Amino acid sequence: MISIITVNYNQLALTVLFLRSLKQYVDAALTEVIVVDNGSTADQREAFAAVYPEVVYLRSEKNLGFAGGNNLGIRHAKGDYLLFLNNDTEITEGFVASMQREMECRPEIGLLSPLILYFDDPRKIQYAGYTPMDYLTGRNSGIGVMDDDHGQYDHITAETGYCHGAAMMCRRTDLDRVGLMEEGFFLYYEELDWCERFKRAGWKLGFTGSAKIYHKESMSVGKESPLKTYFMVRNRWLFIRRNAARSTAVLFGIYYLLVAMPYQSARYLIKGRFDLVKAAFRGIWWNVTHSAQAIQLLVDRG
């Protein structure tokens, strides 16, 4: 059995469209679909069941974040394979079978992501793999971003730097060894941190172009908000502190404080976004006030 897990937060219409996509292409007898309603203001069980009657509906009164919501789904999942999909995606015919087939054929891969195309323009590629992380800058690059899809990745399955949080598959047996996602991130970087843990456990990260999904994320830069800015700034440093060598993490901290953040803050000030400057400094302050020992506790717990 395959368990498909998605997290919903006050996005009834979007999740309904996601479930309709699953209903069209998956075999309900072989696939468990779990919707984690993650702190939504209303119980949406009936609305989701009307679209996908077999849905397993889990409701959390509290918003647990991306990692926490998925972890709740993991704890209830019964599948031999777990497929994590954002609720703003729509799958294609044969997608689930292709993902499972690649996992079965490649036991060295612990976590696998498909080719991701933009829903608003299906010709454009959002994700065809990631390059490795530069721990001194906390940056890496997407492969194939904004290229036209003309089948160049259809027959490629390869190792990648990181999987994409919008669509990932793993085996239950491997997950039992790696552990759950780190909920301390709440938003952003948790899937990259999880990828690092899979690699440390001895597995490779995979990308396959044999399976495709459409992602409704905007192709342009999304609207900046203090919430997003805070977690992006905080978690970029947190990710490096958890996963880079101590000497490298120190060098990154110097770069982040003296180069990256002054530059980013200047950009916010030019735009008149004082709220984003404040949010960025809150993200920095969190790391300054949380010791290396506290970060290590997160690593040990993971």
Question: What does this protein look like?
Answer:
The chain has 302 residues and is an alpha/beta fold. Helix content is 43%, strand content 20%. It contains 10 helices and 10 strands. Strands 1, 2, 3, 4, 5, 6, 7, 8, 9 and 10 form a 10-stranded mixed beta sheet that branches. α8 runs antiparallel to α9. The longest helix has 25 residues. It is globular, with a radius of gyration of 19 Å. The chain starts with a strand and ends with a helix.
List the SSEs and their pairings.
Elements: E1 2-8, H1 12-25, E2 31-38, H2 45-51, E3 56-60, H3 65-76, E4 81-85, E5 89-91, H4 95-105, E6 109-118, E7 125-127, E8 157-159, E9 167-171, H5 172-178, H6 190-200, E10 204-215, H7 226-243, H8 246-270, H9 274-289, H10 292-301
Parallel strand pairs: 1-2, 1-4, 2-3, 6-10
Antiparallel strand pairs: 4-9, 5-10, 6-7, 6-9, 8-10
Which structural class matches the secondary elements?
Answer: alpha/beta
Largest sheet: 10 strands, mixed
Provide the gyration radius in Å.
19 Å
Element-level helix/strand string: EHEHEHEEHEEEEHHEHHHH
Structure annotation, total helices: 10
Low-confidence stretches: none
Categorize the overall geometry.
Answer: globular
Mean pLDDT: 93
Q: In percent, how helical is the residue content? A: 40-55%
Calculate the terminal CA-CA distance, rounded to whole Å. 26 Å
Q: Provide the β-strand percentage band.
A: 15-25%
Give me the count of strands: 10
